[in-house]
What does this fold into?
Amino acid sequence: MRKFDIRNIKIRKVTVDQLNDRMLLANLYVTQALTLIIGIVWLLFQRRNPLELLIFPTTYEFAIWGAGLALFVLLFDLSISRFVPEEAADDGGVNERIFRARPVWHIAVISFVVALCEELLFRGAVQHAFGPYWTSILFAAIHVRYLRHWIPTGMVFSISYGLGWIMEYTGTLWTPILAHFLVDFIMGCIIRFRREEK
It folds into this structure.
């Protein structure tokens, strides 16, 4: 039996085009699992119970605010995409690769996993420590694929600040989770069906 030697591991930079579909999905789910673990650990260090943050609200006001922010973001994004050159909003093809051939149910699963994991970390833990402004700067920075262009970076910062504000206003983490889910799901479906028409 061969012994495992860590020195044999080679790390190299790859582009999204060099990843096959299976590796792309594995990368997505592993990074979201890490995001969830970091969020839970951070919450525990804050002496807060992650399960209490996920108690479902008793009223549906959160749904109105979450859907309202999602609608605003989607309308703004779709309208700005008519005037901004495609290369100025380029994310390196990541969203295209993730969503273009997925069935709708898988787009929904991906959108929910991303919304839950990222919002638990950023709105649940980071915002509690640093407030919505600094959380939004960090949120924009981790969406590194957008940093090459100021328009998507500004949009990610603004969306993040909006997510933070509606959480503060409604007092529940489910509001930004719902808004994040709806934006990702609808944009994923747009990418999926726009490509199908071509």
In short: The mean pLDDT is 88.
